Amino acid sequence: MTSASHLVSPAASGGSRLARIATGCQTAAAVTVPAALALTIGGFAVRAYVSAPHPAQPGYLSVALNGWAAQIDRPVTVPARGLSVPVRVTSSGLDTLNTVLRLRIGGQVVSTRPVTVAAETARSITVRVPALPPDGCLRAVHISVGKMGTGFYAQAAAGMAAVRPGLRGRAAC
After folding, report:
1. Which neighbouring-strand residues pair with 160?
2. For residue 6, what pLDDT is reported?
3. What residues contact residue 104 under an 8 Å CB cut-off, 6+ apart?
4. CA-CA distance, 89 to 120, in Å (whole number)?
5. Rounded mean pLDDT for each run of 10 residues along the chain, 173 residues in total
6. Closest CA relative to residue 138, chosen from 150, 151, 156
7. Residue 127's CB: how many other CB atoms inside 10 A?
8. Cβ within 8 Å of residue 143, ≥6 positions away
9. H-assigned helices in 69-171
């Protein structure tokens, strides 16, 4: 059997300069036309989105530790006389709100009081944390205004920890 020879067209082997130019133009058009269409349609879509009316941003109520309490990065020691904790309450985009400030220690509500949060304001409220039981246990302290809140961990002052008999050095939590 003899080997088959492949026939190559003159255009493929560089025979016609006009054919090469036509192929290059076709490739350029195949890339340029879709890109130009995408940019044009995308530009109109962006303009339409930017100029369309949008709903107002929702308002918010935030509660955060304020003053010295904003620097809390470890459990706080509560002295026997209790502790005053500054809290910042910020309202934006909401009407004046009448709600309740709650202090929870270890998941239990310790105190509540009504508060009025004026629209578009930021104010500081002082929350009194009472003395904690002298058992050496860490307790979660949570301060909330309405549905928003903040918190930290606290324990009784040193030297007041009671140890359960029979468990050397372990707090009775």
Report:
1. none
2. 52
3. 110, 140, 141, 142, 143, 144
4. 11
5. 51 67 86 92 92 86 94 93 95 92 95 94 95 90 95 82 50 59
6. 156
7. 19
8. 63, 85, 87, 101, 102, 103, 104, 127, 149, 150, 151
9. none
Tokens at 28, concatenated: 């350029």
Cα(67)–Cα(71) distance, integer angstroms: 8
Q: Write down the H helix ranges in the chain.
A: 17-51
* Residue the block writes with tokens 């005053």: 84
pTM of the model: 0.63
E-only strand ranges, the chain: 60-65, 76-78, 83-92, 97-105, 108-117, 121-129, 139-145, 148-156
- Rounded to whole angstroms, how far apart are CA atoms 157 and 136? 8
Q: Which two tokens stand for residue 47?
A: 């303009």
Q: Which residues pair with 125 in a beta bridge?
A: 87
Local structure of 31: helix, strand or coil: helix
pLDDT value at residue 172: 56
Q: Residue 72, SS3?
A: coil
Pairing assessment for the beta strands 60-65 and 83-92 based on DSSP bridges? antiparallel
Residue 110 corresponds to which tokens in the numbers above? 């310790």
How many angstroms from the chain centroid is the CA of residue 3?
73
